[in-house]
Structures are given as structure tokens and as C-alpha cells.
Amino acid sequence: MSVIWTILAFIVIFSVLVVVHEFGHFIVAKANGIHVKEFAVGMGPRLLHFKRKGTEYALRALPFGGACIFEEEDPFEDEEDEAVSEENPMEDPTKGTSLKTSEKSKKDDSEDLDDEEEEGIWGCKFSEAPLAGRIATVLAGPVFNILLGFLLAMLVVGVCGENPPVIGALIEGMPAQEAGLQPGDEIISINGERIYLFSEITLYTITNRTNDWVVKYKRGDEINTVNISLGSMEGRRVMGIYAGEVVDCANIKIFQYSWYEVRYWLKASVKSIGMLFSGRIKKDDVAGPVGMAQVIGNTIQETKAYGIGTVLINLVNIALLLSVNLAIMNLLPFPALDGGRLVFLIAELIFRRKIPKKFEAVVTLVGFGALLVLMVLVLVNDVSRFFR
After folding, report:
1. What would the pLDDT profile of 165-209 be if each residue is shown by its tens digit?
2. More confident site: 381 or 6
3. In a 10 Å sphere around its CB, with 0-12 CB exposed, 13-18 middle and 19+ buried, how is residue 188 labelled?
4. How far, in Å, CA of 28 to CA of 253, rounded?
């Protein structure tokens, strides 16, 4: 029974995150006059579908994610047309075969126009839209995931409260006590990095190798600075402090601390990616869909004894992490991701000319293939963990 609940929870979380991401692309594309051919929820064969204002809306059989499909030009077809035109630059379009081709073209254009007039002209192709509109459309997916993360953070923070970076107690003989810190002191920054939540102190400890910290803290109305060299306890680097009281956020503070929570996960995602590329994260620390499902299953098992409310709030917290992480991962400058497309658009902005469509299509195709290979490797690693 727990396996069924794990699968259902994973499907709901994953689908919501992807559909919100694709909806961001969809709504901003529409606002910028870009024609969206299809907006789909799920994958595979269509169960239900209808067409409105030039866009087909579909519910598909497999409840995994969704898609927002723009009207695009065929880059290889355009290249062939240009080649034909260059081969016959002096041909008179009013004679012989050219006349027939011209008449046929006019007839086809007329038929296409009749179809458009019948259905309505609902936007331009993505490549024909203004550059600002295309950039906004590509960015909208990750931005909507961050906005979703903020809404999820409001649920978590509103129910659970939040731990500000205030010292509740000190560990005897540890660096923080020896440096003169006291309960009630509020940590403001570590080595110049601003701290808003107690969990950010732990994050800084994990993601930064330096043991020598310059800690700025607030005591009453005074702001002071102290140098601390980290100690060790049970094999972990520690400053030697415990969190103070939880702040009740079921009030206006919910907006402030929800943003701090989203900011924390943004930092955690960016720093984790940095650790991955620097080799400080092992392969077993990386998880794909199967690994995420395993985390969800473990969370359900470990919290079900405390009631359905505790289970749900922990699942919401996982969805918050994954939503922010999805936004950051999609912004990586890798072909086939939103970040890869942004690279081409930024290049167009800098050089004031469009990148050749064929080149962009080939790079994206290669990137997509590499992404599939990476996904398979992560999947194999996720599955192998079950047997280790």
C-alpha cells in the first residue's frame, strides 16, 4: 500500500511542477503574440482534446508532466529553399515553369489564408516574435517554478514557522563559546555572505571548505564582528551553536520568511551544482526520478506515525525544493534546456542578428541526445542503489 501512495505522490508532485513550468511558457507566449500549437497535460495518446483560438488543449494518457508546443519553422526546409533561390537568381518568374510555380504558390497561399481567416490568425511563429518576447517566454518557465516555490513556502512557513539565525544555546568548549558569542545573538553574515535563516549556517558549513570564519552578529542594538575557527564534533565541522525559538509566521511575517525559504533553496541548488561540477558530490548524491520517488517514499514512511498533516507538509516541502531546483536546472546553459535557448537569444541580442536556424537545431539535437544519455545513467544509478 505504501508503494501505491509513493507512486501517487510522485506523479502528483512531478506533474504539478512540470505543468506549472509549461504554463509559464504558455501564458507569456500568448501575451507576446506567439502562436502556441498545443498545450498538453500528460504524455502519450490523447484522451481528451479541444481547440480554441488556434491552440489545441489536450489531456494525455500518461500522467507525467506536460508540454507547451510553439509553432516553429523547419530550419532544414528553409535552408533548402534559400539554396534553390540562390541557384536561379536571374530566372524570370513570369515565364515558363516559373510562371506555373508562381501561380501554384499564389493558389496555396490563398488556400492557407482562407484557412487562417476561417480559424482566425492567433499569433506568429516563435522565431518571428520580437526578441524581448522570445526571451520573456523562455524565462517564464523557470520563473513560474520559483513563484510556485514561493506559494509552497507560504504553506510550509505558515504551518511550521521558521528558525531565524538566532543562537538558542552554545555547546560547551566549542569555538562559538570561546569566541564570546552568547544565546540571543543574531548571526548577520559569515565571511560577507548574508544570513537570514539558521539553516543557511548549516548550508554554508557544508558547501564551503574554509574553516576560518568572520562572523558578523547583532547583540541588542550593537553589531559586532568576531573571528571563529571551526571545531569538530562526531566527524563534522561545527561552530557549536543551537537554533533558538521558532518564529510564528501565521501573520504578515509569512511573506518575509517565505521569500527567505525560497532564497535558501535557490542558494542550495546553485551551490550543489557548483559542488557537482567541482567533483565534491559523489554519484550517489545525485538523484533522478526514481531517486526522487525513493525520497518521497521514505518521507511518507518516516512521518506517517505523526498523522496525515505531517506527511502532507513534508511532501509540500519536497515539492518546494524540487520546484526551485527545476527552475535552476532549466537555466543551465545547456542545449535542449531553457538556458541553452537563452544562450542563442542573448547571442542574437549581442550580435544583432539571428543565429542560423540550422545551426541552432543541430546543437539542440546533440544536446538533447546528451541529456537523454545522462538521464539513462542517472536512472541506472538510482535503480542500482536499491541493491547496494
Report:
1. 999 999 998 999 999 999 999 999 999 999 999 999 999 998 888
2. 6
3. middle
4. 30
